[in-house]
Specification:
- The longest helix is centred in the last third of the chain and has 22 residues.
- The protein is an alpha+beta fold and 152 residues long.
- The chain has one domain.
- The radius of gyration is 16 Å and the shape is globular.
Length: 152
């Protein structure tokens, strides 16, 4: 199993070398950084937004795609034809979680993630993980409502 949070100080080539030793379908695990009912709603929204973005990115490079959500992680199961594209996608996703200290790469991740969330909210794209997107939107709305209540 590939754990995004464990991809640290890696390059695309490092990830590619790891992938060639793993049998398909690949299982990619991304741990949730928040807990429902125990975390700030803004943090929960960002967490589910990141997970929905990760699913979208992985589906775009997959020929077969599925995922499973548990209390502490989301596991994506994918088969790909182009393993190099998967390595590049995993590299991008790793910048949002743990990989390296390069602010430009981290900014690229967040720019792409927020662009995805904006398009998804406007229904401009087909969403790969609708339940993750729904959880993002619910938490975002609750966070906005809480902010309005605080202003009163």
């Amino acid at each position: 199993m590939i754990e995004i949070e464990k991809i640290v100080n890696a390059t695309s080539d490092d990830i590619l070398n790891m992938l060639i030793h793993v049998e398909q379908p690949f299982k990619v695990c991304i741990y949730k950084s928040t807990q429902l009912f125990f975390s700030d709603t803004g943090d929960i929204a960002r967490d589910f937004g990141s997970l929905a973005f990760a699913g979208q990115q992985l589906k775009e490079v997959s020929k077969n795609f599925d995922y499973n959500t548990t209390n502490n992680c989301v596991t994506f199961e994918i088969e790909v034809i182009d393993i190099v594209s998967l390595a590049e996608t995993l590299l991008l996703l790793s910048y949002g979680y743990s990989n390296g200290d390069d602010d430009d790469q981290e900014m690229e991740y967040f720019d792409e993630m927020y662009d995805f969330l904006d398009k998804a909210e406007k229904a401009e794209i087909e969403i790969a993980c609708p339940d993750l997107m729904e959880a993002y939107l619910d938490a975002k709305m609750e966070d906005e409502n809480n902010a309005e209540d605080d202003d009163d």
